[in-house]
Predict the structure.
Amino acid sequence: MTGFIVRRMLAMVTTLWVVFTVSFFLMRAVPGGPYSGDRNLPPEIEENFKHRYRLDLPLHEQYLVQLTDAVTGDLGMSQRLYDFNVNQVIAQGLPISAALGILAMAFALTLGITAGIVSAAYRGSIADVALMSVATIGIALPSFVVAGLAILLFVFMIPIFPAAGWGTFRQLVLPAVCLGALYAAEIARITRTSMLDVLSQDHIRTARAKGLGQAAVLLRHALPGALLPVVSFLGPATAGILTGSVVIEKIFAIPGLGWHFVQAALQRDYTLTMGLVLLYTFLLFTLNFLVDLSYRILDPRVELS
Amino acid sequence: MSARTWFPLLLIVLALSGVAWAVLRVQLPPADFTFVNESEVASVDPALITGVPEGRICSAIFEGLTRNRSDNLEPELGMASSWEISDDRRTYTFHIRPDAEWSNGEPVTAHDFQYSLRRLLDPLTASRYAYLAWYIKNGKRYTSGGSGLAEGDPVEVELNPPADVPNTVRGKLQYGTLVRVDAGKPDAAGESNARDRVYVVEIDGKVRQFQAADEDQLLPEGIEPCRQVLFESRKLGIRVIDDLTLEIELENPTPYWLDLLAFYPLAPVNKGCLEKYGAPAWTRPENIVTNGAFLLTERRLRDRIRLTRSPVYWDRDNVRLNVIDALSIDDRTTAVNLYLTGKADWVTAPPPVVLREMLAKKPPPNDVKPVPQLTTYYYMVNTTRPPVNDVRVRRALSLALDREEITRVATAAGEVPAFSLVPPAMPGYKSQSFPPRNPELARKLLAEAGYPGGRGFPKLEIHYNTDQGHQAIAELARKQWQRELGINVTLRNEEWASAQDTQQQMDYMLSRRSWTGDYLDPNTYLDLFVTDGENNSTGFSNAEYDQLIADAAREPDETKRMHMLERAERILMDQLPIIPIYYYVSRNLVKPYVRGWYNNLQDIHPLNTIWIDHSVDMNAPQPNEYSRELP
């Protein structure tokens, strides 16, 4: 167990370093820079601007300086949001993206697993076909379409929810549902497939032979094993959902991290882009690690090595 | 209960309380007036910003010597209660209001303006708008740092400040005379870094050598490190006569100087606040000290900025809104959704499709009233690249363009076809235009240039930054040019930052751009195209043009000056380094119960005169100031 954790930590540090290096050089390979603007700078001022953000150093020195800072937890000043450093931007945006993500995930899990179980239990029935068709459509529809339809329906035709913003629970409902819909569809399909797989196994036949009811067989004996693939899916999905969805955050004006991600890259905010990429890498790694740990709880046969 | 049962339960409880915390901690009482302020603001430091959303906030929390009247934007008394102008119109003496106060209760003094204007000019501030203060005597030389210095100039050497003081505190100053500047060692590309320059300065009879370097940097024997060497700031045309009297001496008589003073970059900032907290910590709502009509009380990234009425502002009795929310929303459709559901009272840039639909109604609703703006949309031409280096080709392109079709099909709010750079709405000036559409003549010119019927004409490329609107216009231009001139046209789009870079490097043939005047004078358009101007980017260079712009800047007689500028624009419209396409109109949605909000030529809407009047009849003709015709 300890060896497993240590190895994972080492792998994470290496990955973060590789991601840092690749992002650093990729960002600087595209034209433009943090000083690009629709009014060009006089040369003296551009020079001072570059000096302030150490962009006047040779590339390898910039790399070393920024790497050293990043290792000590200093992600630098944002180069486009002049009044904030990267840590402050993350501190403001991450809780909001995460809160929305948790709600969306809770919705997705509840709906997805229920639909998956029902589909598997009544395989081939009208309910199964209907649920899986909805799930397929859910996966195929881009989230801006889902969000657009939801706004049309529940903001303008039946005005029960606010159009956008952050600060009340009512404002959360539409974005959480729209964000969760895609994940719910995926989870439903995964649950159904693995439920069908588990239901055909010997221990289920044994349980039925002992005279257990349908509910007990499905929920107590089949579900835990069938959840393993869902849990694997949850790791990367949660990392993505926690750092914010670009489209949903933009349409519902949610002040999370997702839109920062896009804007920082488009505006060549090198430091903020780097900070967000590293944050995403860290979350992805951590959540995958948690997924591996939870395998042990769900399936005692799994050995962590 | 086993761990397998309570652990998931605990997780659920933790997650839900986390969600509740993230929502509840940001609850705010509703504002009196809410508007959509487009993108997140880059900063609230008036010296660092250039954007329109930033300007709306900074103009509300800071105030310069003058301020803009809401209705026509003419300069009126701001921090200054009166001023005198010398006979040569180069020296302004401002008397600052005795009742002008900072939000921390300190009086606003002439020293504050001296501090702030010098800071704006300081090359270390790296302000994009520093050039607006170059009208002040020696301002440009001060900002230009080492490269603006000549032998014998009075200079100030700013020594490195101690390591433990905030970054806004200046180092100790040594005043002297510049003996010479030794350029640094050239690098591989043959260019020497400005930071390697060695300044030889005579200070109190002693000759010393300085180089911009950190204290711990290894320097050759005899060279002292310093932060920077600048033209002496005491020789700037900014003089404090007494606490409430400020004298500003300009390089040239500048008829729009009082307009410029109302512009946020020239507003004062509080020295005590800056030097106590350092940058950027001083801009935080809990630290910032301001002197405008509103206080910055809340700032949430990509959410909102909350402004509240200042209790110490000199004209507070005429400010009627207590709480204003400026929402930062990038998505234009979302902004309109908020407007339609009553959550926003003013939206600045609704999507074209919404505008088109509203304007098509008979009569159009009171929420929408586009008026002409001082912004021109044009294609820059790279005059160094064949075949568009031939003026006949440029004229042919301009003559073959059907601008009416472009404004009818691709724009939404009644934009006006453009035949000049300076919009005709510019007061006191007669825009110089080129001839209207004439495909016949265009074909003839193209044939003269050696491309009869477009034969042999290389592929013409239109470059623009990725945007549906720009694309629609470029596609129409392509269609028109292919049809009328028989030439092959391709489109190339790049996302914004790359497009800026491409323009600056002049790596294009035709490239889209628009220009909004910084102030109400044709000079703000025409001085773009002087030889090597920072924003010229077309390779256009014309000695007579440069001379006219320079002479106009020095000309005290207003009629003669305008005449010179008109002659300059004539040259520009004959040579066509740019092909104007259309002039903008404003595109605002404003609720009819919003009063004191005026349409004007620059789309600037001071917040201090706005009020909410629910007694208006929303559907009556012209219920508020906004829906009335421009005077």
User: Anything to note?
Assistant: Chain B touches chain A through 67 residues (CB under 8 Å). The longest strand of chain B covers residues 173-182.
